[in-house]
Amino acid sequence: MSKTFLIFSILIIYFGCGVKKESAKKYHIEGVIENLKNGEVVLEKLDLASNERAYISTDTIVNSQFTFNDTISGWGLHSLVINDTIRIPFFVEPGKIKITIPDFKNDSAVISGGINNQLLAEHRFSFDKTNGVALIEKFPNTVFGAFTTYYVMMNNNFEGDTLEQLISKLSGDALESVYIPHIKKVSKAILSTAVGKKAADFAVLDSMGNELRLYDLKGKYVLLDFWTSWCKPCREANPLWKKMYDKYKNSNLEFMGVSFDVKCQPWKKALIKDELPWPNGCNCAGWDNISDIYGVKSVPQTFLIHPDGTILEKNIKPTDFEKIFIKHIRN
Questions:
Q1: How much of the chain, in percent, has pLDDT values that exceed 70?
Q2: pTM for the predicted model, two decimal places
Q3: Were both Cys, which of 1, 126, 147, 274 would link to 238 (CB 3.0–4.6 Å)?
């Protein structure tokens, strides 16, 4: 029995037999916006399947106050949207949650109610490998722990057995979160696109509607860049990637960008504004079959692929690319 098959079997047994069913529980949100008397607040969440913001409810701000009451299954990160501009992330969890917003023009807030919001306030979005793994091991029975697992495993490189061990630590409330079925699905894709595996072929449409295929670039080193127009780190990296592209484009290297934008227009505008010279495609469907195959549900993510199609590196930053690329072309 192969090691990979054994890991897959363990994951299936763990998630299939050990996960509790999502429970529907009530929450009550009391909010105050200190410098805004009237307006509108929207409660929304990120749909992990489609990569779109999902509307939940709206409340009118009266004398600086608003409330939300409901029953929800599958606990996870949500956002308050004030006047369709400012987004404040927090965890909806059972019981009472108090949110105090000093200034409606920025996303700072004091949130009390539940261990997950406490952990979010203390640690924010700790997705680097060292801090992320430490938090998962310390708080494995929280929704925050499941949330951190979901993003840490995508944004870092793990060996198969190490990833399985990390996931197996989750327990209690973590198993009732929205992240568990997605962790199961994405972990399989991550193992199948690990360093040393063959990169899977795919097709995507460019801005003119022409088909781009990864395998059309075989024979060259390929820097495969997964991004979106709304991803700030992606856009900030583009000028740095352009410098690397200009420097090494004549060294048997090609870049290929794939965006997971839901709509085509923002992606096309970003292409023009950022002046990206390499092949770029988008199916304009959010997370799609390409993101499923590569286990990409968070951006930016990058893959360096050998001319023979083997995955050499994952999650390379522009600042590290030159040293890594030179190492491989010299071997």
A1: 92
A2: 0.79
A3: 274
